[in-house]
Design goal:
Blueprint lengths: L20 E8 L8 H16 L3 E9 L9 H11 L5 E4 L11 H13 L3 E4 L2 H4 L7
């Protein structure tokens, strides 16, 4: 209360992400012969990556590959909600095209910057990208 007796609004403290909590985001192209293979590999790779680095996957979020702007995907909206709530400290992806294809790289840059502004690390799990920790800086 203020000195005049009116209630004072309290601003909520910004959420601080748990540094070991991670969401695994899988957005993989579906092949014609084995439609779930790419997604299965991405999830397996992500789990292995997390385990080796002491991260705990709190949720696996999936989207169908095809929409270049991740903000139009339901799964990506979930990832953003988790990041904004401070529930996760890292988002794991197989490779950059999981966020947005190369032809729409500006969406990838926008989304990774947004995650980092919310204190969330962006980490790639594919071996050639993860050999240095897989983290985007």
């Amino acid at each position: 209360m203020t000195s005049s007796g009116t209630p004072q609004e309290e601003a909520a403290a910004p959420a601080v992400p748990d540094p070991v909590a991670a969401v695994l985001y899988v957005c993989a192209d579906r092949g014609t012969l084995m439609p779930s293979l790419a997604a299965e590999r991405a999830e397996e790779e992500g789990r292995t990556f997390a385990q080796r680095r002491g991260l705990t996957i709190t949720e696996v979020v999936t989207d169908e590959f095809g929409e270049p702007d991740p903000s139009h995907r339901a799964g990506w909206q979930r990832v953003r909600a988790l990041a904004e709530a401070g529930v996760v400290g890292a988002v794991l992806f197989r490779w950059p095209a999981s966020i947005a294809p190369e032809g729409a790289h500006e969406f990838r840059y926008r989304e990774t910057a947004w995650l980092q502004e919310h204190g969330v690390r962006v980490r790639y799990t594919w071996a050639p990208l993860s050999s240095t920790g897989g983290e985007i800086r």
